Amino acid sequence: SDGSVLPESGLAASGGLIRDHLGRCLSAFTLNLGACTITQAELRGVVEGLRVAWDKGYRRVRVQLDSQCAVQLIRHANTGNHHCVAILDRFRELLSRHWDVIIEHVYREGNRCADFLASRGHVVPFGFHEVASADPMLLYWIMYDCQGISEPRLVLNEG
After folding, report:
1. How confident is the model at residue 148 (pLDDT cuts 50, 70, 90)?
2. Do residues 46 and 86 make contact, with C-beta atoms less than 8 angstroms apart?
3. Which end of the chain is less enclosed by CB atoms within 10 A, N or C?
4. First to last CA, the chain
5. Residue 129: helix, strand or coil by DSSP?
6. One Pfam match, by short name (predicted)?
7. Contacts of 154 by beta carbon, 8 Å cutoff, 6+ apart
């Protein structure tokens, strides 16, 4: 899953997809959220992805997102006064069900499909939208991911 906020307007969107162990797309979604923070958008993407996975009967799920902040919030036990507490409560309710869920951080370059779906959320009406797994642009990004194309990444070494 991924989240996106347009800096000019503050309008947010999320998106994500569910793939099998071979990388094939089983389900994809985009979500126009209106105005919210990037952290809220990232977390809403996770919650919607988990909801879709549960509704479709998947009980062994690996969630990958490129927001280290969202991963830390999800893993942190005490978030009672955080501005994302309602979303985190919904996440914890989903997590308490009888299934195996692993949450992990991935770099943005490894999250291209979800990034594409989050960006698409800015151009659809408000709310949740399922995306056809045969969408040509989604298939392009899935193929790109499956080829394992690497990109250089600049890492600054402080010290």
Report:
1. low
2. no
3. C
4. 33
5. strand
6. RVT_3
7. none
Mean pLDDT of 59-75: 91
Q: In whole angstroms, what is the distance from residue 110 CA to residue 60 CA?
A: 20
- Residue 65 and residue 107: Cα distance in Å, rounded? 8
To which residue do tokens 């600049």 refer? 154
Helix (H) or strand (E) holding 137, with range, is helix 136-146
What are 139's two structure tokens?
């298939």
Q: What share of the chain is helix, strand, coil (3-state, %, to 5)?
A: 40, 25, 35
pLDDT at 84: 85
Q: Which residues contact 17 (CB under 8 A, 6 or more apart)?
A: 25, 26, 27, 28, 29, 49, 113, 114, 117, 131, 133, 138
Neighbours of 132 (CB within 10 A): 10
pLDDT value for 146: 74
What confidence score (pLDDT) does residue 37 get? 94
DSSP string of 9-39, one letter each residue: T-EEEEEEEEE-TT--EEEEEEEEEEE--HH
Q: Which of 55, 12, 28 is nearest to 114 (CA)?
A: 28
Cβ-contact 50, 101 below 8 angstroms: yes
